[in-house]
């Protein structure tokens, strides 16, 4: 056959002419295949800035992106960025605009047959990172309030100057009700009057601009001066009266805690390109738990506050290696003492985001299930129209019908305690919140550690329910039933005292479920159920990290003052 083809080519000029385009196609195809086989994958060196908001321009710097985009694209958390977002594309830098509806995670450059390494990308909307304001050289000025009096949980409109175009670490400070006050941890220039800053929790800020702030009156606020605090200083005070409260809330016996969090990683088996993320729970800021600061970190974290956690990223781990992560954290906490005039309690504003969010079921609270509805219908007093009395009826029913028993199966469903009649503090906390939400009472669980009389830390869970124009009311079913823990409030009155009051011998690491999105598409995640924080992802690794062992210790108390 080959000899016949050779003879044909030698004897026919037409055949020789026809072979030219065929040979050219073979040459081009071969060159393309060789080019693809020898081409290097694009390399990401840095993202500038690594924390951005929608609509901002971000630069990806690296190598091997190509002189033009062609059939390449950017992926964020496995989702391709649309073509309209790209500004420019060259071999070492890509400029694009952060589109809406993109979550943070890992970012990479892709083509049909190549993928770059991955770097962490974060949206500013999701983390309380500092955002620089326009530097006008002036301190903030409050010119007016939309009203001289407001209720807890309602929106206050503050008009003025020099608030900054974004909030960042700025905020609004409110007078705080506190007795036996022994001195607040505060910045220079802040008055001696106890103050609390409204946080992002409970939908604290509705709007922030350089000349207007819309802020929700926080839980724990009382009548007195308010301030706007920015990087450049603090405004002069303007008085605000907190109106129509159906009771009082006091914060007493403030303590300063120094705690240590520690994680050990050992037995590592890994290849090139291995990645490991650790999300270490960070104590929350509440009306009673304040002034939280990370004093020491080893090694320094990738982000100090990423969705309520300290985020660590480790790359290219070595087989046989080990990692130790340690943080020292300082904070203050106080007892919460409430008194309630039950007759003055109002019905809920069902249009508020607090009501809508904390009366619905979520990944943690199984509200509105048939099982919960059936139990709620059997509770005497649960049909009461007064939310406070309704919550008390649910509290009393749980204490009377569920006996304390330490749960060893961490995967046990809390609702199974409704059948067995036995459960631990975690079970009763979740059941209380589920029954309350089903009854139309906003409720959320808290997770953390309790500090006993010997200054040992023990994982603990408790609950809170919301009262209109008042704020959150604490409930501790575990302490009420007399779990093995020595407290000044143990005794006959524990059941009464721990409905509406709570001691400050504790540190909270999460209030409600911490929503988390995996950093790595199709990565391996590790959860720690029934632990001192409500979060799904504690560890995350890619396929190049074959195996390792992790040891998380319960946060330890270093000192209390």
Count of DSSP-assigned helices: 9
Task: Label the overall shape.
Answer: globular
Structural class given helices, strands, pairing?
alpha+beta
- Roughly what fraction of the amino acids lie in strands? 35-45%
Q: Mean of the pLDDT scores?
A: 86
Low-confidence stretches: 33-38, 129-136, 179-190
Report the end-to-end length measured between terminal Cα atoms: 96 Å
* Computed Rg: 29 Å
Proportion in helices: 10-25%
Largest sheet: 6 strands, mixed
Total strand segments: 35
Task: Provide tags for this entry.
alpha+beta, five-stranded mixed sheet, single chain
Structure, briefly:
This protein has 561 residues and is of the alpha+beta class.
Explain the overall architecture.
With 561 residues, the chain is α+β, with helices and mostly antiparallel strands. Helix content is 16%, strand content 37%. Strands 11, 13, 14, 17, 18 and 19 form a 6-stranded mixed β-sheet that branches. A hairpin with a 3-residue loop joins strand 6 (86-89) and strand 7 (93-97). Helix 1 (2-11) crosses helix 2 (13-38) and helix 5 (387-401) runs antiparallel to helix 7. The chain is globular.
């Amino acid at each position: 056959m080959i000899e016949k083809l050779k003879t044909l080519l030698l004897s026919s000029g037409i055949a020789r002419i026809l072979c030219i385009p065929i040979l050219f196609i073979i040459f081009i195809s071969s060159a393309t295949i060789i080019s693809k086989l020898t081409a290097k994958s694009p390399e990401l060196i840095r993202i500038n800035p690594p924390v951005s908001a929608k609509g901002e321009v971000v630069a990806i710097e690296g190598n091997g992106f190509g002189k033009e985009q062609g059939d390449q694209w950017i992926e964020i958390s496995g989702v391709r960025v649309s073509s309209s977002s790209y500004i420019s594309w060259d071999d070492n830098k890509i400029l694009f605009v952060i589109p809406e509806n993109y979550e943070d995670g890992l970012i990479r450059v892709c083509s049909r047959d190549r993928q770059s390494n991955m770097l962490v990308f974060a949206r500013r909307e999701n983390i309380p990172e500092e955002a620089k304001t326009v530097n006008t050289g002036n301190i903030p000025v409050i010119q007016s309030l939309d009203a001289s009096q407001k209720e807890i949980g309602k929106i206050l409109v503050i008009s003025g100057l020099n608030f900054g175009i974004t909030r960042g670490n700025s905020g609004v400070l409110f007078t705080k009700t506190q007795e036996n006050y022994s001195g607040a941890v505060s910045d220079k220039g802040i008055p001696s009057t106890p103050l609390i800053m409204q946080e992002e929790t409970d939908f604290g800020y509705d709007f922030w601009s350089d000349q207007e702030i819309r802020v929700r009156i926080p839980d724990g606020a009382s009548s007195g001066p308010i301030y706007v605090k920015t990087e450049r200083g603090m405004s002069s005070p303007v008085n605000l009266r907190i109106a129509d409260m159906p009771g009082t809330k006091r914060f007493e016996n403030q303590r300063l805690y120094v705690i240590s969090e520690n994680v050990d990683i050992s037995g590592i088996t890994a290849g090139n390109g291995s990645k490991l993320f650790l999300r270490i729970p960070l104590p929350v800021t509440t009306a009673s738990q304040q002034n939280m600061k990370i004093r020491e970190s080893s090694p320094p974290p990738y982000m100090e506050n990423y969705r309520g956690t300290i985020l660590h990223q480790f790359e290219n781990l070595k087989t046989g290696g080990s990692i130790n992560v340690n943080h020292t954290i300082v904070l203050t906490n106080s007892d919460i003492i409430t008194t309630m005039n039950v007759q003055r309690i109002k019905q809920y504003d069902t249009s508020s985001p607090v009501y809508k969010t904390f009366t619905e079921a979520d990944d943690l609270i199984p509200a509105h299930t048939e099982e919960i509805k059936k139990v709620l219908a059997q509770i005497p007093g649960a049909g009461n129209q007064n939310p406070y009395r309704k919550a008390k009826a649910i509290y009393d029913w749980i204490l009377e019908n569920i006996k304390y028993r330490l749960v060893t199966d961490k995967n046990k469903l809390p609702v199974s305690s409704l059948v067995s009649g036995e459960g631990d503090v975690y079970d009763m906390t979740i059941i209380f919140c589920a029954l309350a939400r089903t009854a139309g009472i906003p409720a959320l669980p808290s997770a953390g550690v309790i500090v006993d009389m010997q200054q040992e830390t023990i994982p603990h869970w408790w609950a809170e329910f919301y009262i209109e124009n008042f704020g959150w009311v604490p409930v501790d079913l575990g302490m009420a039933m007399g779990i093995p823990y020595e407290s000044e409030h143990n005794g006959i009155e524990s059941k009464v005292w721990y409905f509406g009051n709570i001691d400050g011998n504790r540190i909270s690491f999460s209030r409600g479920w911490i929503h988390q999105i995996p950093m790595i598409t199709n990565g391996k995640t590790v959860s720690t159920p029934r632990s001192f924080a409500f979060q799904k992802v504690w560890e995350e690794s890619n396929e190049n990290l074959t195996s390792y062992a992790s040891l998380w210790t319960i946060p330890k108390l270093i000192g209390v003052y």
